[in-house]
Amino acid sequence: MKPAQFEYVSPSTIDAAIAALVASNGEGKVLAGGQSLLPLLNFRMARPAVLVDLNGIEGLSYIEDRGDRIAIGALARHRELEHSPLIASKLPVMSAAMRHVAHLAIRNRGTIGGSLSHADPAAELPMLATFYEAEISVQGPSGRRTIAAGNFFVDALTNCLEPEEIVVEVEFPVLKQDGWAFEEVARRFGDFALASIAVSVRRGPASLEAARVAVMGVADTPRRLREAEDELVAMALDDTTPDRFAEIVVSLVAPNDDLHASADYRKHLLAQLARRALRTALAMKG
Amino acid sequence: MSSDRRASPSDVVRPRNVGAPIKRTEDPRLLTGNGEYTADRKPDRPLHLAFLRSGQPHARIVRIDAAAARQAPGVVAVFTAEDIADDFKPVVPFSRMPNYYATPILPLASGKVRYVGEAVVAVIATSRYLAEDALDLIDVDYEPLGALARAELALADNAPLLHEAAGTNVLIAREFRKGDVTADLAAATVRVAGRFEMTRKAPLAMEPRSYAAEYDKRRDAITLYTSSNIPGIVRDAVSESLGLSGHCMRVVAPDVGGSFGSKGSLYPEELLICIAARKLRRSVKWTADRLEDVSSSSQAFAEIVDAEMGFDANGIATSLQADVIGDVGAYSIYPWTCGLEPVQVVSFLPGPYKIGSYRGAVRGVATCKPPTGPYRGVGRPISTFVAERLMDLGAAALGIDPLEIRRRNLVRAEEFPYRIASGIIWDKAGFIECLDAAAEAAGYDRLRKEQAEARKQGRLFGIGIASYAELTGIGSRIAVAPGMPINTGSETAKITIDSTGAITAAFGVASHGQGLETTLAQIVADDLGARFEDVRVIQGDSDEVPMSTGTYASRSAVLGGGAAKHASKILREKIKRVASHLLEANADDIEVTEGKAVVLGTDRAVSFKQIAKAVYSDMKTLPVEAREELSATYTYDPVNGTTAAATHIAAVEIDPATCFVRILKFVVAEDCGRIINPMIVDGQVHGGVAQGIGAALFEELIYDEDGQLLTASLVDYMIPSAPEVPVMDVVHVESESAVAGGFRGMGEGGTIGAPAAIANAIADALSPLGIGVSILPMTPERIFRLMEQAQIKRKADE
Q1: B781: nearest CB among A189, A191, A265
Q2: Over 90: is that where the pLDDT of B79 sits?
Q3: Using CB atoms, which residue from A43, A259, A265 is nearest to B784?
Q4: How close is the nearest chain B Cα to the Cα of A13, in Å?
Q5: In the β-sheet with B139-144, what is the strand arrangement from edge to edge?
Q6: How far apart are CA B627 and CA B612, in angstroms?
Q7: Which pLDDT tens digit goes with each residue over B98-147?
Q8: What are A193-211's pLDDT values in tens digits?
Q9: Where are the domains of chain B?
C-alpha cells in the first residue's frame, strides 16, 4: 500500500500554490492536514501527478474576531479550534462539536480547509459550516470568491470548487442565541457520526423568535433543516415540543442503509438526538 | 509509605521468582521503539515483494499477461504459478480424520482463484513502490465460476464446487455421540433450543504479517525471518516443500507484534518468498499492509449452531444436541486443517457440565473467503456462547437463578478426572471455586438487587454469567487439531552456562506478546538457582533446538515451563558436582542459589563464573573427567494436558435511545494453576476479555453476496478501543495442576468467557421486552431491530 509516484511541491504563497495547480493540468491535489488524503493516496484511490503542500504557506492559520463574525484560516488545526477560548465564547456549538472530531492525533494535524474540501457527509466541520451558514473564501487563478456553505457541499465527498481553487478562509457568523446544543452518536468516541444534530434557539415572549437546525450523517451532505426551523418558530412551546420537533426532523431526512447503520436506525437515533438537543437548548439560560 | 508485608527470612536467602509480579524483560526495548520486528531486518540490498491479489471470489484464470510488468522500472522478476511450478512441492494439511479433504497449499493461485484477496502474481522489485507500480500493469482474464458467499448456499445440491477434486464443498464432517439424546430430550422436563451464530472475525494483530527471506549465497541457504508463532513448523514445512535440508533453512520469529492465532499457520506468502529468494539468489522482504492482512490472514469463528438442551425438574442438564455449520473459507490451513475451529465447537460444547447424553455434528463448508484458522479460544468462544445461552434459557424456564443452575451442573471437586459427553477428560480444576469466587467478587446478590431497582425505573440492566473449561498445555496423547500428524505434545529447553558464567536458555516456543522471555527466565532462575537478571531467554529460532512447534493453544507455560524446570534441574546437579570439587564438599551438602553454589550452613561459596572458569578455562583446577559441559537439554511432554477454567460475570446496561451496550462491571475468576507472573496473567486476561468484548459487541467481517469484503479497513471493521474496555476485576483461584510446576495455560480464556457472559447479560437486560440473544456481535443496529420487532409484536398482542 504505497502511493503511486507524484511530484511534491511546497509553495510559500497561495499564488504559487495556485500556479502549481494550474501547471498540473488538473492532475494536482492540495495537501493540508493529510488525514484523509494520505490514506487515499496509499490506497491509490487518488493518483495526483502533483501534490501541492500548503503547510509551508505563512499566515493561513488563524482564528480572528471580526465582531459579529469569526474568521478562521484554512490551515487552522482542529485542535486549535477545540481549544480556542474565542470559539468557546462566540461559536459554542463549534466548540462543543470539535471534541467529536476523530481522535487526538488526527485533530493535531487535520485542518478546517482540508475537512471542508474533503466534504465528508459525516464529518463535523462541514456540518458546522452548514449550521452557521459560514462563508467559505476560495482563491483560484481568477482571484478570490466567496461561497455560502449551503452551496459548497454538492454530494458525498464532493464540493463545488474548481480544480485550481483552494479554500483560504472560513467566516462563521456569530449567532444571536439564548440556547444551543450539539448532539452526536458515533459507534466509538471519535468515529464518524451515525447521526448528529446541532440546534440553536432565540426565545421570544411566547414562542421562539428564531431557530437554527442542522444535521449530518443522514444524507449525502450535511443539511440545514429550514422547514424544521420554521415549524419550531411557529410552534407553541410546551412539554410536547421536543417530541413534535423530533418527528419533524426525522420526517425531513431520508438516510441510506449502509454498513454501519440502517436508515431506520439512523432515523431512530436522529429522533432521540433531536429531542435531547432541543430540550437542552430550551433549558439553557441565555 | 510503609508496608505491612515483610520479607520472611527464607525470602531473603532465596527469593522466589515464580509467583512474583516481575516487570517484563521485553518491555524496555518494545516500549521505546527498540524492538526488532521482521520489517526492521536490513539484509544486504533486499528486494521487495508485492502481490497481485484476486478481485474475483471464484474464477478460472484464463490468461495472465505480465509482459509489461516484467519491463517496468525496478522490476527484477514477476512470478505466476506457472513460473514457479517446479520449485516446490505443495504443502498438504494432512489429517487422519475421516470425511476430510485436505486442500493443497500453493504459493500462488493455480488454475483458479477461490477468494477475493488470494495471491495470483508476485512482483519482485528494488522497492515496494516500484513493485506496486508494476502490479498495475498486469492483466488477468478471469472466467467467473460463481461465488460461494455463505456456507448454507455452498451446501445446496446445485452449488458450484470450490475444490472439484473433493467432490463436495463439505471439507470436513464429524459427529460425536454419547447416550440416547433423543430419549433423554423426550423425557426432559424442560427443553430449550436456539439457532446461534458467531460471525466471522479478524484476529487483527497490531503487526501485520511480515516476512524477510535472507539469502546466503555462499551455501544456498535461507534464513526466513517471519512474524510467526510457529517458526519450527514453518521451517519443517518449507524445508520439505523446497527440498532444503534443515541446516539450509533456518526460521526465526524475532519480535512479533501479536498473532492471536493469525500468525499460527503456514502461509502461501512464506513459501513464495523463500522460492523467490532462492530463484533470484537475493534477499526478499514483504510486509502486509492492513488491507492485505485483514483480507488474507486466517480468520475466526463463522459458525451457525442449532442446539437444544434438556433439563430435569431440578435443573440438571440431561441432554444436549447440536448441529454446527462452519464456514471454513476457501482452504484447509497447514498444519491445523479446516477442522480445527468447527470441530472444536462440538468437542467442547458440553463444557464444564455433567451432561448425560450428547450428539454433536459438524460440517466445515468451503466458501469464497480466506481460510478460518486458529484464533484465541478456538471453537470454545462459540461453544461457550451456545452452552451458556442454553443454561440461561433453562434457568429461566425452570425459574432457577442462573448462578444456581450452573452450580448444580458443574463438575464438582470430588468428581475429577471427569470425562464429558464428547470424550474430553477434565483433570482437577476449580470449576465451582471459580463460580463462587466470581459471584463473590461481582457482589452477585447485590447486583440482582440493583437490577430489580433499575427495572422498576424501566432501565435495561442485565447480568450475565459464563463458565467454561479448556484444555491447555496439551501433551502428545491428545492431538491439538483432530487427526493431525505433527507431534504438538513436547517442547525442548536447552540451558547453557558459557565460559563467562552467563546463562542462556533456548526454547523452541515463540513469544508474540506473552512475555515468555520473562516467565521462562523466572522458572529457570528458581530451578537452576540463578539470579533472574542473569538468565537470557532465546526463543523462536529453529536453529536453537532440534524440533519445536511454537507458541499456540495455551501451551508455552506448561510445555516450555516444564522443559525449563527439568533442564534446570539437570544443570543444577552438574553445577553441584563441579562445586563439590571446588568446595571440597559433598554434592548433597551444596545448595545452588542466586548464581552461587553454597555449602549449606557455611559461608563457603563459588559463583557460576568461578564454576565456568574451572570447567572451561582452567587446565588444573578440575580433573579432566569432572569438566562436564555446563549445559542441559530436556524435551518435556506432559502426555495429557491440563484443564484451565474460569467464570466470567458481566453487568451491562442498554441505553434504549442509542441501543448501545455499556459494560458496568466485568469480573473474571480464573484457575490457571500456579501463577508464574501475576502481572502477566492479569494482562492476558485483560487482553483476552477485550477481544471477547470485540466479538460480543463490535467485530464482524462482512462479505457481500459476491464474496467481496466490505469491512477491509479499520474504519469499517470496528474493534473496541480503550474507552470501550471497562476496568476488570480478575480473581485468581490458584489450584496446582498435575504437570511440572503445577502450571495451566491461560492465554486464551479471556476470549472464551467474555462473549458468552456479555451475551447473557444483554439477554438478561432485554428479557423484560421478551428479547433473546442468538447472534454476536450484538451491535446497536441488531439491538435496535430486536427492540423494534419486540415493539411490533407487543402492539400486535395488545
Answers
A1: A265
A2: yes
A3: A265
A4: 31
A5: B112-113, B59-65, B139-144
A6: 9
A7: 999 999 999 999 999 999 999 999 999 999 999 999 999 999 999 999 99
A8: 999 999 999 998 889 999 9
A9: 38-146+208-256+263-296, 300-476+639-797, 491-636
Report the Cα B311 to chain-centroid distance in Å.
Answer: 33
What confidence tier does B6 reach under pLDDT thresholds 50, 70, 90? very low
* C-alpha–C-alpha distance, residues B274 and B144, integer Å: 31
Residues of B with CB under 8 A from a CB of A: 128-129, 132-133, 136, 289-292, 657-660, 698, 702, 710-711, 715-716, 718, 720-721, 723-724, 780-781, 784-785, 788
Q: Which CATH class for the A179-283 domain?
A: alpha beta
- Residue B257: the pLDDT is 97
Return the axis-axis angle of helices B380-398 and B340-348, rounded to nearest 10°.
30
What's the pLDDT score for residue B619? 85
For A7-56, the fitting CATH number among 3.40.50.300, 3.30.43.10, 3.80.30.20, 1.10.10.60 is 3.30.43.10
Residue B427: how many CB atoms within 10 A of its CB? 17
CATH number 3.90.1170.50 given to B38-146+208-256+263-296: yes
To the nearest whole angstrom, how far is the Cα of B757 from the nearest Cα of chain A?
Answer: 21
Q: Please give the Cα distance from B745 to B418 (Å, whole number).
A: 19
Residue B740, φ and ψ in degrees, nearest 5: -55, 125
Best CATH choice for the domain B300-476+639-797 from the list 3.40.50.720, 3.40.50.2300, 3.30.365.10, 3.50.50.60: 3.30.365.10
Residue B96 has pLDDT above 60, yes or no: yes
Per-residue pLDDT of B35-60, as tens digits, reads 999 999 999 999 999 999 999 999 99
Whether the bond between A3 and the residue before it is cis, its omega within 30 degrees of 0, is no
Same fold, B300-476+639-797 and B491-636: yes
> Percent of chain B having pLDDT more than 90?
93
The complex's ipTM works out to: 0.95
- Say whether residue A43 is in contact with chain B using an 8 A CB cutoff: yes
- The Cα–Cα gap between B331 and B172 comes to 11
Of B644 and B5, which is predicted with more confidence?
Answer: B644
SS3 labels along B380-439 = HHHHHHHHHHHHHHHHHHHCCCHHHHHHHHECCHHHCCEECCCCCEECCCCHHHHHHHHH
| Nearest chain A alpha carbon to B660 | A187
**Which candidate in B53, B292, B655, B659 is best for mutational testing of the A interface (most A CBs within 10 A)?**
B659
Domain residue ranges of chain A, discontinuous segments joined by +: 7-56, 63-173, 179-283
Helix axes B749-766, B780-797, angle to 10 degrees: 30
